[in-house]
Amino acid sequence: MPTPAAVRLHERPVAAHLRPLPARDPSRAALRARVLEVIAAEAANPHLTPADVAAALGITDRTLARLFEHAPRSVAGHIAQARLDLALEHLDDARFSGDLDVVARRSGYSSVADLDRAVLASTGLTPADHQTDADDEPPVAGPRRGYRPTLPRGRRARDVVALLR
Matching SMART domains, A to Z (predicted)? Predict the structure, then answer.
């Protein structure tokens, strides 16, 4: 039969691994919300980094990283998403029709190429394809560059064409 001291030794390692859940602390949740507010307000700044967000809130970079360590998206991911959301809003705005350089600058991208990569990765469309006039239907995303359709096993191209007729 184990002695009480031996039982306490076995309980200690389990208790050492137990930590309070980070989402339960209301001050952490409020600070995370404030971080997202700063990101939304400063997303158009192409030089915005997680370190800038931490400095704006008066916390360390490590504290900022800990706030989002259990979240599905990092601080840098939130910055990238805020820029993308801003870019998509500008692309839908008729005032910026055809002027991708202005859209890129106002969305926090340092170049049109950066804007192009982000929008293409997210939507499957280039920014130029994404821009629509008020009268036009939004474009439908098609196959991405480099897409090569494959035929079902045992089928030849002429068989598939015959089926489509």
Answer: HTH_ARAC
